[in-house]
Amino acid sequence: MLNENSKIKKIVLAYSGGLDTSVILKWLQDNYQCEVVTFTADIGQGEEVEPAREKAELLGVKEVFIDDLKEEFVKDFVFPMFRANALYEGIYLLGTSIARPLIAKRQIEIANLTGSDAVSHGATGKGNDQVRFELGYYSLQPNIKVISPWREWNLSSRTNLIKYAEENQIKVPKDKRGEAPFSVDANLLHISAEGKILEDPWVEPEEFIYSRTKSPFDAPNKPTEITLEFLNGDPVSLNGKNLSPAKMLHQLNILGGKNGIGRIDLVENRFVGMKSRGVYETPGGTILFHMRRAIESITLDRGAAHLKDELMPKYASLIYNGFWFSPEREMLQSAIDTSQKNVSGTVRAKLYKGNVIITGRKSSFSLYSESLVTFEEGTADYNHSDAEGFIKLNALRLRVKKMIENSK
């Protein structure tokens, strides 16, 4: 292993400043005997990221990168994904999945800036994130060396991790000395909880698990009415106020959170083969999903809308499995974005006890024709008698099938 380690000159570590990545940082320095660069991404996880700088410097790191990526995250990753109305396995809004390619992208950029020949992450050997990070690395830098400590070291328990930290003068917070009750991942789109007390899918999540949303049972008894204006498929204005992508999602999170919107409890199929139970809160994303569907309902042609729905599961699986930078995702994205050129207009909704209730939609590109659908005297463009031939042509194969069956 020492001979292999000696080939690596400098490593860029995705570093949160928490116990796990602090131990990883020291372990990389000890085992690879090279300089480590730390990179901390602020993608709206709701924690101060600047303390990571001091922690890294205390461990001898000379190059520390702390980047505010919130606007890039929402504009270039979240919004394009939402244009596809992507749901993994019919329910998951892909909050963790969509953050990984951005982190991987920035890590590779920093590797190029600092002359690093390796990158490292803190994902475990059982989860999806190791796949997402590493597919991202290799897509952007084919010859990069990837170090995954959880697949290499023998620090297989929380006790061993804490012991290693103490032996190397790494501060261990009091709340880390006991076994963590569940694992949390957060960004501006969502927060997830999984593992430990949530591993039994029959056990109901207790209220303390939720941190971004009020319980729907305790949410206000009066609905909150909002309007969203869309331009080419993306939200640009909330209640008449123009907002940047990150500020838009932040405000939707606040509105959704106080109205108990965006909680899901699911058992999903991981890419690595096992099933896992996760509890997710995606308040702003849930509002955006439903209101986007509403504006598409009047601006998208039936054929385009139905084709989008057929493509969506494939698109969602690509994001979930880590193939953001794949040619097939880019091909689907191009088709999806083309469909959004007239998805512009305004949607009104009421937020009430976990529900997003659409109450109106309008657009200058609307394909909805009141004169066509009215039960009163309508336009001459639709002739009722035309329906008879249409029905008979569509019934032809059914009639033939039944006639043959009856003749036997």
The CATH class name of the largest domain reads: Alpha Beta
Q: What spatial form do the alpha-carbon principal axes imply? A: elongated
CATH fold type of the largest domain = Rossmann fold
Percentage of β-strand residues:
15-25%
Structural class: alpha/beta
Binned, the helix content reads: 40-55%
Spatial sequence of strands, sheet with the most strands: 3-2-1-4-5
**Assembly classification:** single chain
Secondary-structure element series = HEHEHEHHEHEHHEEEEEHEEHHHEEHH
Average pLDDT confidence is: 93
Q: Could you tell me the number of beta strands? A: 14
Give the N-terminus to C-terminus distance in angstroms: 76 Å
User: What number of domains?
Assistant: 2
For the sheet with most strands, the description reads: 5 strands, parallel
- Unreliable sequence segments: 1-6
Continuous helix count: 14
Structure, described:
It is a single chain. With 408 residues, the protein is an alpha/beta fold. It has 2 domains: 2-80 and 99-180, 3-Layer(aba) Sandwich (Rossmann fold); 184-300 and 342-362, Argininosuccinate synthetase, chain A, domain 2. Helix content is 42%, strand content 19%. The chain is built from 14 helices and 14 strands. The protein has helices at residues 2-5, 19-32, 51-58, 70-83, 100-114, 129-140, 149-152, 158-167, 245-258, 283-299, 302-321, 327-339, 370-373, 386-407; strands at 10-14, 35-42, 64-68, 118-120, 145-147, 183-186, 191-194, 224-231, 234-238, 241-242, 263-269, 275-281, 345-352, 355-362. Strands 3-2-1-4-5 form a 5-stranded parallel sheet, sandwiched between helices. Residues 1-6 have low confidence and may be disordered.
